[in-house]
Amino acid sequence: MNFDGLPPLREVIEHYGLQAKKALGQNFLLDLNLTGKIARTAGDLSQAIVIEVGPGPGGLTRALLSHGAKKVIAIEKDERCLAALDAISQHYPGRLEVIAGDALKTDFSQLAPAGSLVRIVANLPYNVGTELLVRWLTVKDWPPFYQSMTLMFQREVAQRIVAEPGSNAYGRLGVLAGWRTQAQIAFDLPPQAFTPPPKVTSSVVHLVPRTEPLHADVNRLGRLTEAAFGQRRKMLRQSLKALGGEALLEKAGIDPTRRAETLSVGEFIRLANAI
Ligand code: SAM
């Protein structure tokens, strides 16, 4: 037994036949020190409803519960994991709700009662991680339905999320994350931390929504960043031709000879609002 009174995760994986499937982005975290560190990075959980994507055999889920999460709502696509998760639900009565389904088809804003303190915490499947983050960053209602997000990404993606203007990693993700949140890399995890190990280093990113981000239309900002960074080596008057080119840049008071990666988040918002 582990300190939480449940069997060690290796036994759980063997007992339920949970050999990792690559197509589901399954790289499991079995080290309790690391799952505990992620739970602590998420902040005070005692009043929180934690939404977890992809609990798998339940390592991080168990850490969240043993660190006092009021409730965890976990969405898992792999039906093989459900029996293992059910055993955790029984161990923590009323505190773990498992939804068998696809996170990409889930309306996250409806999972917890309105007014709840919601923290999203996940060791995300790499194949859907960026897509989910972009959805959470671009929800229509702001402040959003969550108070923080603590998420695992490949380090290269994490660097793009926290990137500052002027850096190679700065692009659409950095603009969206910088616009609506304060994002920082909390810590890195080497490939060996996972079973099976992925090819690259991973990072946990902690994002806290800004209470009053500048107003912008998400769709316009999306089109703008796509065009600007789609041709990041070109001057903006060229890359933004289809959106208004030089006239648009002048309207927003931005030098048309600049390149996308030199623009601050605030300048992107000004440009989006000028479209
Ligand atoms: N949380 C576990 C851990 O830390 O060991 C597992 C993390 S593993 C990187 C990703 C998990 O997400 C797997 O359990 C996988 O089955 C699940 N998953 C993959 N795609 C999903 C989707 N579209 N919706 C919900 N869960 C998904």
Task: Give a written overview of the molecule.
There is one protein chain. This protein is of the alpha/beta class. It has two domains: 9-209, 3-Layer(aba) Sandwich (Rossmann fold); 218-274, rRNA adenine dimethylase, C-terminal domain (Helicase, Ruva Protein, domain 3, Orthogonal Bundle), CATH 1.10.8. The chain has eleven helices and nine strands. The chain has helices at 9-16, 32-41, 59-66, 82-91, 126-137, 155-161, 172-180, 218-230, 236-239, 245-251, 265-274; strands at residues 28-29, 48-53, 71-76, 96-100, 117-123, 148-154, 181-189, 194-195, 202-209. A seven-stranded mixed beta sheet has the order 4-3-2-5-6-9-7, with helices on both faces. α3 links the parallel β2 and β3. α2 crosses α3 (59-66), α7 packs across α11 and α8 (218-230) packs across α11. The mean pLDDT is 97. Residues 24-29, 53-56, 59-60, 75-78, 81, 102-104, 123, 125, 128 line the site of S-adenosylmethionine. S-adenosylmethionine (SAM) binds at residues 24-29, 53-56, 59-60, 75-78, 81, 102-104, 123, 125, 128. This is Ribosomal RNA small subunit methyltransferase A.
